[in-house]
Amino acid sequence: xxxxxxxxxxxxxxxxxxxxxxxxxxxxxxxxxxxxxxxxxxxxxxxxxxxxxxxxxxxxxxxxxxxxxxxxxxxxxxxxxxxxxxxxxxxxxxxxxxxxxxxxxxxxxxxxxxxxxxxxxxxxxxxxxxxxxxxxxxxxxxxxxxxxxxxxxxxxxxxxxxxxxxxxxxxxxxxxxxxxxxxxxxxxxxxxxxxxxxxxxxxxxxxxxxxxxxxxxxxxxxxxxxxxxxxxxxxxxxxxxxxxxxxxxxxxxxxxxxxxxxxxxxxxxxxxxxxxxxxxxxxxxxxxxxxxxxxxxxxxxxxxxxxxxxxxxxxxxxxxxxxxxxxxxx
Amino acid sequence: xxxxxxxxxxxxxxxxxxxxxxxxxxxxxxxxxxxxxxxxxxxxxxxxxxxxxxxxxxxxxxxxxxxxxxxxxxxxxxxxxxxxxxxxxxxxxxxxxxxxxxxxxxxxxxxxxxxxxxxxxxxxxxxxxxxxxxxxxxxxxxxxxxxxxxxxxxxxxxxxxxxxxxxxxxxxxxxxxxxxxxxxxxxxxxxxxxxxxxxxxxxxxxxxxxxxxxxxxxxxxxxxxxxxxxxxxxxxxxxxxxxxxxxxxxxxxxxxxxxxxxxxxxxxxxxxxxxxxxxxxxxxxxxxxxxxxxxxxxxxxxxxxxxxxxxxxxxxxxxxxxxxxxxxxx
Lengths: 330, 330
Known about the structure:
Chain A is an alpha/beta fold and about 325 residues long. The first copy, chain A, has 8 helices and 14 strands. In chain A, the strands form 3 sheets. In chain A, strands 1-2-4-3-5-6 form a 6-stranded mixed sheet, sandwiched between helices.
């Protein structure tokens, strides 16, 4: 295992020190492992909190800032954060208008966020949770009952974040988060595994001419293994899986996401095939992201996430955002 | 070799199709392999053109847009673009105020840009070239006489781009580009090699506990191979090399750049050590970038680039930019 770390037990703390040094717009509580906006809670604004295992950067800490999250709770690599982090984060971002928890559907995350929400409610902070489960690959899997939450998390954080910034109440912010999740689907493909530092060996093995279709963001098994193929064939399998679940049409928001070890050059090749597929179905990529946004350490592969847009969702997507990982228009 | 491609001979064209589909702010001439701003040349504005081998994305095509480049010429992977591309690009961005060529110091790029500049001058387009040679690792190397150009290219494109956007004349834009290069130093480290699609095998081999110090962005040899070590030790070697060449002090612009296959989590760990080193020297990371900006396909490793800021350079760095790879503040 060759990694740029100081030791397997300081990975998350050392990375948080780096975030703190690089981004003066963030206030990073290294001891308690919470990434806050430096500006603190704004009275009357709904607070947005997310979190999950580390190793998926920029998700979630990189999406803290104006127009997106108010705080993120990073767990150990590929390990759920604990309720204490979530409680501190929730209380720390409450501006009196309540807090939305954005929770990817992994059993540990769900249970811990639920416990934190209950304890915060007991202390007088109103909390609503939205569960992200956009991955069409498999029903139930390692770590998850039901579908896994992947790329749509970014869409929810951005769009609900924009609505919260405009001063909307918690019920509306929660509703749009639910809507975005319901209108979004993802599918991931791995060309290689990744290695969790503390484990020291790859999470799974693929041979030289094999890919995993429907991979999870922790390297959980997908639908099947298949021989490696041309990008257009692999993209067709991914897009068919999405289209079978949610027929594609009209204007869409599309993300081709690198898993961490895939050259951007290849991600653009994948995007070209995704756009061609959408055109076949009479859909268009009205808004696009291509890059590493929801990663799995150094895994090679990609995921594609599609959200069927409405005018309102497009407008909120376009609204200003200022975070380390997503920034425009302010 | 497992890559997300349709074939080794269509890699660049397919990726350009993806860029065209993803970024409506760009006009991508796929046949001639030029990435332009969709808005075309602005009369009276100095045009900025760069280019180089593909495989370093988002450099350069991802830095075309408001406040940065007017056009980029991608060559084949790790191969210089040809003069015809540069000539078309230069003529295509000329708004009557002349054109700046930003050229990384690799022999092929230098010769081809020089030929293109001469031919454009013959046709009445004023061209000035600035050579980027910020890499302190080695003097003369594979592909290069003198020092190689790496991360400072992004700094030059951003800062000179901002000045050009403000309406400054070619002489001033060229001067600030020269200044930024002169005030910037880089050093790269590889943990693994990368594979050029057309070659089908890694550009070099490193064993399981070995790293290459001073790596070039095409996998050219650096200063030495060394046993793998903690991030803080590796960063100290890189920063010492920079500091020995250009003593660090005051406010700096710092980029920790992933080579393409390095998790962002690890890049932040590297940034933490870079910030600690700067503090020792009485310098501060007044502006920071952490991410994949000047990549080498799927290579694992990082480079660090430091530019000693002035108030003017900081102001131009902060100016609005709107490109696929760098975007803020508009």
